Amino acid sequence: MINKFYHFMFEVNLLTWVLLYKLTLDLLYIILQVTSFAYVGYTLNIDYFKIVFGWLIYISIFRVIKTNVDNVITLFAYTFFALSIAPSVTLYQFYDKCQLWMLMIQVFALLLIYLFSRIRFFKNTSIKQVSSYSFSVSIFVMLYLLIFFIYSLCKHGLPSFELLSLYSIYQVRAIAKISLLESCIMNITCKIIIPIVIVFSCKEHKYLKMLIGIFIQLYIYSVTGFKTFLFIPFVLLGAFGLRGQEIKKVIFMGLSVSLCFASLFTFITGDYMLYALIGNRAVFLPAIIKCAYFDYFSKNEFVYFTQNTIAKILGIQSNYSVSVPNLIGEKYFGDFNMWTNTGFIADAYSNMGIIGVLVISILMALILRMAYISMDKAEGDAKSILLSIYLLYFVVLNDGALISTFISGGLIVWVAISVFINFNKPSFRKNS
To answer: Is the Cβ–Cβ distance between 169 and 225 less than 8 Å?
Structure first.
């Protein structure tokens, strides 16, 4: 009886956060997006049928993906639902250029990935793993970080204190010259290696090593202007600190609290930077860019995967004379220099329409299945560490193409690391 009551209260608490998150999105769109960020193109069109229908879609999809199992597949589903589906539902309700089919393509992709990732494409095989606690691994990681930092310092020099503000990131990006190879190395280092060092050091109470990792991470942000690198330590430590909690509750509670705090900070101080980063840049802007991609490529020629990382490496000529992100920036937002990266499903649609969505969805399902198998033996804190890194990549996919994230973004490296490295703490037995 007590267990049933506890389960009932948890379900009520979870549903409260899920509904609160959607209500927060709707209110912030009406109060802030269409006023303070109207220059982006947000408009307000009140249609009571679409409002009610949107809520029904939102609740129905959550009910379909809801499960009591916490693993990498459910983590992806909840992250995609919260960052991609939910904001798109809000746009469908209030933004007249967001049509129902644009939303349903994303819903279809989520359900397809969710279904296919549960199919056993690969057998669980026993692979000899190297312990992450081994002395050789520790030495290799620290030497790698030292060489990486020295190289970065020699190339970029010390950051200008005048350009450390979030308001100056575009100036920093204009100064930084980063090649494709350097971008790959930087992504692997700042999205995998350093995050592992930060979380492991926090777990083992080695705070000096943790601070060194955070310092290198902040230095890379200061000389490149990539905001993702700045927020990774905070997201990681927050996610790791909430280990043991239900994934779905943490996601919806965390997003709701973050959006409310950022909006209250804006109302109190009049400074929009924090909300612009969390509310606009991380939630609503990716959603409106997806609408732009769906609209443009429903009327124009597809890209046929000629502008991704593999195409660049192979020297494949694109059928478009300009980069698609710049093209969409000019056509829909009036700024050719606006680099409008989009989520992996909208990117898939831009490449081959619904066939592209099918192909990329199945590829994503395969990646999730490999990730699931690689975490089969992870336990306790080790599982939390693995999920924390995967969470970073799932967030990146909200405005990043899958192929680029997999290759140049370092996701392929992280999957390999999670397969061949054992993050469980070794147990030592005394001889009796």
So the answer is: yes
As a whole number of angstroms, the distance between CA 341 and CA 323 comes to: 10
**Angstrom distance (rounded) from CA 216 to CA 425:** 26
d(CA 284, CA 88): 8
**At CA 230, angle to CA 228 and CA 234, rounded to 5?**
100
Beta bridge partners of 421: 130
For residue range 60-102, list pLDDT tens digits in order: 999 999 888 888 999 999 999 999 999 999 999 999 999 999 9
Helix intervals (H) in 176-246 = 180-188, 194-203, 207-224, 227-241
Q: Give the HSE-up count for residue 367: Cα atoms under 13 Å, Cβ half-sphere.
A: 23
Summarised one tens digit per residue, pLDDT across range 218-255 is 888 888 877 777 778 777 777 766 666 777 888 899 89
18, 62 in Cβ contact below 8 A? yes
The answer to whether 196 touches 385, Cβ cutoff 8 Å, is yes
CA dihedral sign, ordered 205, 261, 39, 101 = positive
Phi, psi for residue 46 in degrees, rounded to 5: -85, 115
Whole-number pLDDT of residue 138: 85
Q: How confident is the model at residue 158 (pLDDT cuts 50, 70, 90)?
A: confident
Alpha-helix residue ranges (DSSP H) falling in 29-179: 34-36, 48-65, 72-80, 86-94, 100-116, 135-156, 169-175
Q: Are residues 25 and 283 in contact, defined by beta-carbon separation less than 8 angstroms?
A: yes
Contact between residue 63 and residue 15 where contact means Cβ atoms under 8 Å apart? no
Average confidence (pLDDT) over 202-227: 85
Position 244 scores a pLDDT of 62
CA 380/CA 365 separation, integer angstroms: 25
- Is residue 72 a contact partner of residue 53, using CB atoms and an 8 Å limit? no
- Burial state string for 236-271 with b = 16 or more CB within 10 A and e = fewer than 16: bbebbebbeebbbbbbbbbbbebbbebbebbeeeee
Question: Is pLDDT at 190 greater than 50 in this prediction?
Answer: yes
Contact status, residue 262 vs residue 255, Cβ threshold 8 Å? no
Per DSSP, 198 falls in state H
* Alpha carbon 356 to chain centroid, angstroms: 21
For 338, the 3-state DSSP assignment is coil
**What integer pLDDT is reported at residue 398 of this predicted model?**
94
CA dihedral 226, 227, 230, 232 (to 10 degrees): -100
